[in-house]
Amino acid sequence: MLAARYLAGYPPELIQQAERLRLEGRLADHLARRLPERHEVRSDTALFDYVQALKNRHMRNAGPLNFVGFDAKLRVLQQALGTHTRRSQVQGAKLKTRREIRVATLFKEAPAALLNMIVVHELAHLRELDHNKAFYSLCQHMEPDYFQLEFDLRLYLMHQEDAK
Ligand SMILES: [Zn+2]
C-alpha cells in the first residue's frame, strides 16, 4: 500500500482514506481543490528572495543564510520530512552548522502552499535540528496550517509517484 509509506505514523483511518482516494483516481482532483494556487519561484535567485522574505518576517535573529537553492538530488520524504540526522559538519573538534536551505526541485512545479510549507520546515531547522516538539511549534508559528499542509504534501508526493 503506497499510502502506508507516504503517511507512516499517521492514524490508520487516514491512511486508508488516502489509499481509497488514490485507487479511485480522485487524488489529483482532491489536491487541485485543496491547493489551487501556483507560484512563480523557478530559480535559485527567486527562491533566495522568497526564503529571505519569510525569514525576515519570522526568524530575523537566526543569522544570515549561507546558501539557498533548489536541489535535484534531495529526496523529500526520506531526507526533508523523514527522521532527521543533524545537519552539522564536523570540522576538527569543532561543530559548525551552516545555515543552508535546500529545496527539492519538484517544488518549482508544486502548489504555492506546499512551497511555503517546505520553506517554513527548513527555516525551523535553523533553530531546531531535530523534528521535536519545539521544531513543530516553530513551524506552526510561521504557518498555522502547517500540519494539514505537511499531510497534503505527502499526498502530493504520493500522487507524483503514481504519475511517473
Ligand atoms: Zn526536517
Automatic annotation (TrEMBL):
UniProt xrefs under Gene3D superfamilies: Metalloproteases ('zincins'), catalytic domain
Transmembrane segments: none
Residue stretches making up the YgjP-like metallopeptidase domain: 77-151
InterPro entries: UTP_pyrophosphatase-like, YgjP-like_metallopeptidase
CDD domains: M48_yhfN_like
UniProt-recorded name of the protein: YgjP-like metallopeptidase domain-containing protein
